[in-house]
Design goal:
The chain is α+β, with helices and mostly antiparallel strands. The protein contains 13 helices and 22 strands. Strands 5, 6, 7, 8, 9, 10, 11, 12, 13 and 16 form a ten-stranded mixed β-sheet that branches. A four-stranded antiparallel β-sheet has the order 2-3-1-4. It has a four-stranded antiparallel β-sheet with strand order 14-15-17-18. The longest helix has 18 residues, at 198-215. The protein is globular and about 70 Å long. The model has no long low-confidence stretch (mean pLDDT 96).
Length: 450
């Protein structure tokens, strides 16, 4: 399907737009496949058809062809995330505008399925990243992807952007990867062409302003805003940048790029805000737009509420600590039947967040208690916090796939709880009984394809 002529017309005088090459690349059907490696889960990459690195993101890799990702246990273990290469430019944006010093609080407001959140949590190793998604079922996918990524500093919330108004001046970085008209994805997903219209571009532009206006009070003075879309339309890109500088007291922050990346720097018509345009005929990636800003003023008197979380009893904590080897500096708290953990330094912030937001995933769920027995949680198995305490079994590919499908599989091992691993990385739990194996892989995450 051809790119809509109304879109082509609207891009005639837009920075970097080259009609012929743009139309040709869409007609070519060429597909670019890329992944981003999880630095905390090293694995044998040699079996993947890796071509080369993504220029603007150290952990980004282009693949020569698209493997059948669903049947790769490493994907399910969180060893990498399948992410479109242009979006990984976020790595440049943060590394050039906000140093990775301890204690940074980050909000990824429109976060599902989690590409940017997992990147942010890899960068802010000593920070706290809140991945928020307003749509409930998409928030569940976000929980799955963030859990598999394995970092304890990644929280998931399920709130409307307006709910963040009750957290004035809380965050050091606000990432808004806004819902948009989606023209940047036309090459990858031609069905998106049918949904495109000029009316929808105008609607998206208004929604983007509403989302930004709702969320910006939660950014600290001098805090950084990163705004991105996968739309080529200036109404959703440069016009939003001008509006941010006119109405929201933001100042533009340029980012250095390298010529060979093929990224086009644009300048907004009124305030010359720097924006970065990705055209698939010029970069190795899909259509994308990103701009960075600093918040100049605040004027808000900070007042947050606080909810006291129910700490796990000392006795239970000791039982847990003697059974499972975990990092130091964790605080344990109860949520329904489950015992969760978070790093000590974030406990106060978690109390504040819990009093204002609906938290779907706080820290890592470590275990639940069945009578006096500890039942280790799946989130613990795939997290970077599980350091030992249960025996493990290394599965071959066939058994790993049976395990991930929740089908019967056969392995030898010590009786009781065992960590199922593939290539050295954890997939989840199974309980080995004298005459059968209980598969504890979460039913809702299992591989359905045959
Ligand atoms: N950041 C994600 C990533 O890198 O994987 C992709 C985000 S996608 C471009 C935009 C997200 O905004 C979608 O998950 C969508 O559900 C959400 N969304 C839709 N309407 C919204 C609204 N009114 N306010 C906030 N988010 C919204």
């Amino acid at each position: 399907m051809a790119v809509p002529s109304a879109l082509i017309q609207s891009l005639q005088n837009v920075s970097g737009f080259q009609q012929e090459a743009f139309e040709a690349v869409h007609a070519s059907g060429e597909q670019i496949v890329s992944i981003r490696l999880n630095p905390a889960k090293p694995f044998d990459e040699s079996y993947l058809p890796i071509a080369d690195k993504v220029g603007w993101c150290d952990s980004g890799r282009y693949l020569k062809e698209r493997p059948f990702f669903t049947f790769d246990p490493f994907l399910h273990a969180g060893a990498y995330y399948v992410q479109e290469a242009s979006s990984m430019f976020l790595w440049q944006a943060i590394s050039q505008t906000i140093p990775e010093t301890a204690g940074k609080k980050v909000l990824d407001l429109c976060a599902a399925p989690g590409g940017k959140s997992t990147l942010l949590s890899a960068y802010f190793k000593d920070g706290l990243v809140i991945a928020n998604e307003v749509i409930k079922n998409r928030a569940s996918i976000l929980v799955e992807n963030c859990s598999k990524w394995g970092t304890g500093n990644l929280l998931v919330t399920n709130n409307d952007p307006s709910h963040f108004q009750s957290l004035p001046e809380f965050f050091d970085l606000l990432m808004i990867d806004a819902p948009c008209s989606g023209s940047g994805l036309f090459r990858k997903d031609p069905t998106a062409i049918e949904e495109w219209s000029e009316a929808n571009v105008a609607l998206c532009s208004q929604r983007q302003q509403r989302i930004l206006a709702d969320a910006l009070p939660s950014l600290k003075e001098n805090g950084i805003l990163i705004y991105s879309t996968c739309s080529y339309s200036p109404a959703e890109d440069e016009a939003i940048c001008d509006w941010l500088m006119d109405e929201m007291e933001m100042e533009s922050l340029p980012i250095k790029t390298v010529d060979e990346w093929g990224i086009v720097e644009s300048s907004s018509p009124i305030h010359q805000a720097a924006g970065y345009r990705f055209y698939p005929d010029q970069v190795r990636g899909e259509g994308f737009f990103l701009a960075c800003f600093r918040k100049k003023t605040s004027g808000i008197t900070t007042k947050w509420k606080f909810k006291t979380l129910q700490l796990t009893s000392k006795a239970q904590e000791q039982q847990l600590q003697s059974a499972i080897l975990l990092p130091e500096n964790l605080v344990f708290f109860n949520q329904n039947e489950a015992i969760r953990a978070i790093e000590q330094q974030w406990m106060g912030d978690l109390g504040i967040l819990a009093s204002h937001l609906y938290i779907k995933k706080a820290g890592i769920e470590v275990a639940s208690m069945k009578g006096k027995d500890i039942v280790p949680s799946h989130e613990l198995a795939v997290s970077n916090w599980f350091l030992g305490g249960f025996s493990s079994v290394d599965l071959d590919l066939a058994n790993a796939l049976l395990y991930l499908k929740r089908k019967e599989f056969s392995v030898e091992g010590q009786k009781g709880w065992n960590l199922m691993r593939y290539g050295g990385l954890a997939l989840g739990w199974a309980k080995l009984l004298p005459n059968r194996i209980n598969n504890y892989y979460p039913a809702e995450w299992r591989i359905l394809k045959e």
